[in-house]
Amino acid sequence: MKISSPSFEHEKMIPKKFTCQGEDINPRLDIADIPKDAKSLVLIIDDPDAPRKTFVHWVVFNITPQKTIKERSIPGMQGMNDFQKQSYGGPCPPLGVHRYFFKVYALDMLLPLKEGATKEQVEEAMKGHILEETNLIGLYQKE
Q1: Shortest CA distance to 26 belongs to which of 12, 11, 5?
Q2: Cα angle at 97 between 91 and 98, to 5 degrees?
Q3: Residue 143 pLDDT more than 90?
Q4: With b meaning 16 or more CB within 10 Å and e meaning fewer, what string describes 53-64?
Q5: Which residues pair with 136 in a beta bridge?
Q6: DSSP type of residue 123
Q7: CA distances (Å), 119 to each of 43, 58, 85, in order?
Q8: H or E element at residue 16
Q9: Which residues neighbour 80 within 8 Å (Cβ) at sequence distance 6 or greater?
Q10: Less Cβ crowding at N or C end of the chain, within 10 Å?
Q11: What domains, with CATH codes, occur in the chain?
């Protein structure tokens, strides 16, 4: 399985449009080679370079397996991010260049969770059900 975006390349800068300094919308993501027996996908976007802890920007689960997650979309059930919202929250680093990990997991089941589940709850529910995983890293620094 492989994830890419027409908006930015792996380990390159994320355009301002997708950040707190722009429209703050999710970029399009393309997912190739999804396992045939996948029942759902999970998308987690987080920033391990945040000052206190890994900062969660978006949690989406029970996504119907699909090759494209469209820009400005809600592809599945949304979990709670560290902005305390059930939505996408774009890169907004306080200082310096941060790395943003766009992680996609193919699962053999739908997760028995409700909207607003935390990243930790989603990760716990996924244990033993991950068929494949992949990630894309984008960078951002405030102007």
Answers
A1: 5
A2: 50
A3: no
A4: eebbbbbbbbbe
A5: 102
A6: H
A7: 10, 9, 12
A8: none
A9: 56, 59, 86, 116, 117, 118
A10: C
A11: 2-140 (3.90.280.10)
